[in-house]
Amino acid sequence: MVASEPALSVVVPIYNEQSVLPLLVARLRGVLDALGEPYEVVAVDDGSTDNTPAALLAARREWPQLRVIRLRRNSGHQPALLAGLMRARGDYVVSIDADLQDPPETIAAMLRLAQDQNLDIVYGVRADRSTDTAFKRWTASVYYRLMRRIVGNHVPAHAGDFRLLSRAAVEALRELPERTPVLRLVVPWLGFPSGEVTFEREKRAAGHTKYPLSRMVALAADSITSFSAAPLRVATWLGLAGVAVCGLLVAVTIVAYLLGATVSGWPSLYLAILFLGAVQLLCLGLLGEYVARIYTAVQARPAYYIADDTRATAPAPAQVSMVDSLE
Ligand code: UDP
Ligand code: MG
């Protein structure tokens, strides 16, 4: 019988992975059975169109800990991951890719670290990316550098979506009002005590990548706009620069006019165009500022999280008498 509250849930988003599935089941099961703790595997079938759904249900017959969630249509890696996280029941929840690029053996190390050091988040950090293409390595390094600037240095570099979350961290995610958080940025932002386990990223076990360039660009755009309103302010800066240049050119034009080095009618026309251009950009920037405020209000993320509050737990009697005697 499967325990009602497993100690560990492993969430696996799966999209058209029929060739990987047998390898995944064999390897993951070996690791999880050896842990000696009750677990569940939450396989999220992201609207696969190949034999994946049937293969999952077949695997489930021999592996009662395998739970299969099927999304109605292909929704993408992040939404599939989120669906699994929101429905996982374990005290700890690990998310892992189906293609065995993240070695399942690392799960044991993550769990041990979290339990020993009482951590809420353990990131799987890629020790080396030599199995990735040079292009992927370069785009990833630009991405992580940019994200650390925008979100903060607590975003671990080269930590993808292979990570462990405690129940408390999953509940914090669940309470976020956002519908489509970029998990690898929002999770560090939650501010829980965290650790890292390094691993060697392996080659895809079978099949081909489901992350074409267009999806990588979409993820990068999502990542930037979900944490920064800076692009909206570009117009403000351009407008201000325009005003400064305009001031300079006004001086130049007046000098040229006084020297008689202008065509009649040119200074007024020229200055009007410059001035209007700058004013328009400034107004656009101003609109951007308000849109930015609306955007953060709509995101409705909490401004802070409290880690501890001594009032929330009953104070020890000795402390009470001390406070009493002071008053
Ligand atoms: N995936 C998914 N839905 C998608 C695309 C991918 O659930 O629309 C899954 C996929 O099955 C795999 C994981 O997300 O388990 C990572 O995808 P992939 O390995 O293709 O990405 P890469 O490692 O090449 O970046
Ligand atoms: Mg992969």
From TrEMBL:
<feature type="transmembrane region" description="Helical">
    <location>
        <begin position="234"/>
        <end position="257"/>
    </location>
</feature>
<comment type="similarity">
    <text>Belongs to the glycosyltransferase 2 family.</text>
</comment>
<feature type="domain" description="Glycosyltransferase 2-like">
    <location>
        <begin position="9"/>
        <end position="173"/>
    </location>
</feature>
<dbReference type="InterPro" id="IPR029044">
    <property type="entry name" value="Nucleotide-diphossugar_trans"/>
</dbReference>
<dbReference type="InterPro" id="IPR001173">
    <property type="entry name" value="Glyco_trans_2-like"/>
</dbReference>
<keyword id="KW-0812">Transmembrane</keyword>
<feature type="transmembrane region" description="Helical">
    <location>
        <begin position="269"/>
        <end position="292"/>
    </location>
</feature>
<keyword id="KW-0472">Membrane</keyword>
<dbReference type="InterPro" id="IPR050256">
    <property type="entry name" value="Glycosyltransferase_2"/>
</dbReference>
<dbReference type="GO" id="GO:0016757">
    <property type="term" value="F:glycosyltransferase activity"/>
</dbReference>
<keyword id="KW-0328">Glycosyltransferase</keyword>
<keyword id="KW-1133">Transmembrane helix</keyword>
<keyword id="KW-0808">Transferase</keyword>
<protein>
    <submittedName>
        <fullName>Glycosyltransferase family 2 protein</fullName>
        <ecNumber>2.4.-.-</ecNumber>
    </submittedName>
</protein>
<dbReference type="Pfam" id="PF00535">
    <property type="entry name" value="Glycos_transf_2"/>
</dbReference>
